[in-house]
Amino acid sequence: MASDTINERGLIFLHIPKTAGTTLRTVIDRHYPRHATYCFYEYPKDRHEFFALSEERRRELRVLQGHIRFGFHRFLSIPVDYITLLRDPVDLVMSLYYWIPRTRDAWLYPWVEGKSLSDFAANGSTWINNIQTRLISGQINDPTDEDLKSAINNLNVHFTAFGLHGRFDESLMLFKRRLGWKSTFYARQNVTKGRPSKHEAPFSTISLIEKNNALDMELYEFARNKFDEVVGKEDSTFWDDLRAFQGLNKVYEGLESR
Questions:
Q1: Structural domains of the chain sorted by starting position, each given as residue range(s) with its CATH number in brackets
Q2: pLDDT tens by residue, 128-171
Q3: Helix, strand, coil proportions of the chain in percent (round to 5)?
Q4: pTM score, whole prediction
């Protein structure tokens, strides 16, 4: 059940596709009132509806979450905390490729219909190539080296915390500490099952994805090193809490899967 308390600060969860964001949303929803939350997940419908909201309704909002670019804090009436999760770009593109056919979404499905993974990676869509740099920098067009610098600066300056898909539990513990969350138990949501691993893909395909996501490769390397630095500064209770949480969360996941 979501908290009925209106937080003094708002929250923007910048959800990069296929980074365990759907799972994180279940945790976020426990801590903020539903009526004060707006989600961007049905593109472009949600954006049109958001900008059509009255000023009075927008002033009620405390949480924005979804596939949006940096900069939406300008549309809220209170200071906000930004959070996000990043992922290895090759894993992200592969996960997206194998996940889209499950959705049969009229907007997304043509991206993969009849296409190989290499074809998919080469199509140049704004939702495939360098998407992490695009969203975190706030860029709409093809990002440049300057946008990469902006994305790194935003992570350093404007994000209260950010995490990594591959280190989800540690990321949750960091969010919990930075944002004062109480309950972070989760059961995995929206997982792309049955897909080949990164190491099973042809070398030429991996190279193509890396080339077309060169900015994201640099951004992720920065994020990985910065994340190591940030959690490395946490005291011993962080790791004690993490181990205790992981043990209890296995029980929680088991109960949720029944």
A1: 10-256 (3.40.50.300)
A2: 899 999 999 999 888 999 999 999 999 999 999 999 999 999 99
A3: 55, 10, 35
A4: 0.93
